[in-house]
Amino acid sequence: MRKVADCRDYPSEMNCTLRISGEEEEVVRAAGEHAASVHGHADTRELREQIRSMLKDDVPQHA
Q: pTM for the complete prediction?
């Protein structure tokens, strides 16, 4: 099943609205890179494991 990481689920000073969905490894990698480049976090193994633990199943949205 596809996974999703959504910045709107976590309060931030910049009110980021990015939503990343895809296969789990893709989402963890992209979310880690985003957290580092946009939110100023260090892209560490610990950060990626924290991201992995917070992923949700991506429920398809039909129009």
A: 0.86
